[in-house]
Design a protein that fits this description.
With 422 residues, the chain is α+β, with helices and mostly antiparallel strands. 47% of the residues lie in helices and 23% in strands. Helix 4 packs parallel to helix 6. The N terminus is likely disordered.
Length: 422
């Protein structure tokens, strides 16, 4: 607060002189009129004027109005600004104890003064920063200053004034005034955590940098070493982060931090007039897949589909995995030209789910589908799908113009919304 005040509050010295005079002159006049000691109380009045000058004058820094940074003051005794705030309140509390000889009341009053200052900074639209760290630092300085004053009075032949009454007054001030400040904070002030927001912002920035580096490397491996990223974005989808990049050669996307590539497609999606055979294309796809999709290649069945004819044809190399005759949800398709150039890929990287045992065979699944539709069945496929959030083995039976889904474990027909995970 002090560190920012010196640079952010214009006219600080002039304001202090004005406040000091306004606080000191009435104090001197009243005490002299009553033939009371005036030097220590006047010094205290001037110091309080200094505190208010530093903390409540309008500035050019701070949060929005009616906000207070309530982040935990974890750097209270290591942060330079926080230590300056401790030093701001300690001398005032020390002087107040010497003047009043009531350390508990003084400590409570200065703690409440700190709370009032932070409240004024927030509610007063002053362009100042209300923070829990400042409040804790000021309160710490108040307690330390009052404690030092009490020790000074005990060392010097200056007895403390009515200790029991001092404790009673101190507790009362803290409960009443402190409770009022706390109630205003809870009802009128919006709590924010600047440190947490800054940390989260830094983490997001770090995530974006790391994710973009990973995706840039994958793009170069897919489209060529001279590929350059033109733009990229990170979106949060279902609690996961999807990273997408547009490059000089094409687009690519994947999931972070799992590092699961999902899709890519070259801008130049025409076939090349190359000489690579189907075997060559498969070898190229396999090398790429084993580096970037090792979990999809292991234990999977590889098939090749020829797209087009002549030298501009392309090869789609597919990877599928079966367990117990059930097609797993993992998918990987890589398209290669006859020049061994990767046109693109589509991937679905999922761990093989644990499934109930299959008790319904193909023949029985056809019978159940025929009973449901009255039509002859044409095709069948046994695969894993998510039904109501749980993975199940299902028969997908073609009957007429529709697909009938039969639970391969229970034999029940699934007639709700289209099952996911195919």
């Amino acid at each position: 607060m002090i560190e920012a005040s010196i640079s952010a509050v214009p006219g600080l010295v002039a304001a202090f002189l004005v406040f000091g005079a306004l606080f000191a002159l009435p104090t001197v006049f009243l005490l002299k009129a009553r033939s009371k000691p005036w030097r220590l109380p006047t010094a205290l009045a001037v110091y309080v004027a200094g505190i208010l000058s530093v903390t409540t004058l309008p500035g050019s820094a701070g949060l929005e109005a009616a906000q207070c940074d309530m982040g935990a003051p974890i750097h209270l005794f290591t942060d330079e600004s926080a230590l300056l705030n401790v030093a701001l309140f300690a001398p005032g509390a020390f002087l107040a104890v010497l003047a009043l000889r009531r350390p508990v009341t003084v400590a409570a009053a200065f703690v409440c003064l700190s709370g009032a200052v932070e409240l004024i900074q927030s509610l007063g639209h002053l362009g100042r920063s209300c923070t829990l760290t400042d409040l804790a630092a000021n309160a710490t300085g108040s307690v330390l200053g009052a404690g030092a004053g009490a020790v000074w009075c005990l060392i010097r032949p200056t007895p403390l004034s009515r200790p029991k009454r001092d404790v009673a007054w101190g507790v009362s001030v803290l409960v009443l005034v402190g409770g009022l400040c706390a109630a205003l904070f809870l009802t009128r002030i919006e709590s924010v955590d600047i440190v947490a927001k800054d940390d989260a912002r830094e983490r997001r920035a770090d995530v974006a940098v790391d994710a973009n580096e990973w995706l840039s490397t994958a793009a170069k491996a897919t489209f060529g070493a001279d590929t350059e990223v033109v733009s990229s974005s990170v979106k949060f989808i279902g609690g996961k982060q999807k990273v997408t990049a547009e490059t000089s050669r094409g687009s690519i996307a994947g999931w972070w931090p799992e590092k699961h590539l999902e899709t890519a497609w070259a801008k130049d999606n025409r076939g090349d007039k190359g000489t690579a055979s189907q075997k060559d294309a498969v070898a190229t796809a396999d090398r790429f897949a084993r580096k970037w999709f090792p979990g999809s290649v292991d234990g999977s069945t590889q098939k090749v589909r020829v797209l087009g004819e002549g030298p501009t044809r392309a090869y789609m190399v597919t990877y599928r995995r079966y367990k117990g005759g059930v097609l797993m949800p993992m998918r990987l398709d890589i398209t290669i030209t006859t020049a061994k150039r990767i046109l693109g890929f589509n991937a679905r990287t999922l761990a093989d789910p644990k499934l109930p045992s299959v008790t319904v065979n193909e023949e029985r699944a056809r019978e159940l589908a025929h009973d449901a539709t009255g039509k002859a069945t044409e095709s069948t496929l046994l695969l894993a799908q998510q039904i109501a959030g749980a993975w199940r083995p299902v028969w997908l039976v073609g009957a007429g113009s529709q697909d009938i889904v039969i639970d391969a474990s229970t034999g029940q027909r699934i007639v709700s919304s289209s099952p996911s995970g195919s």
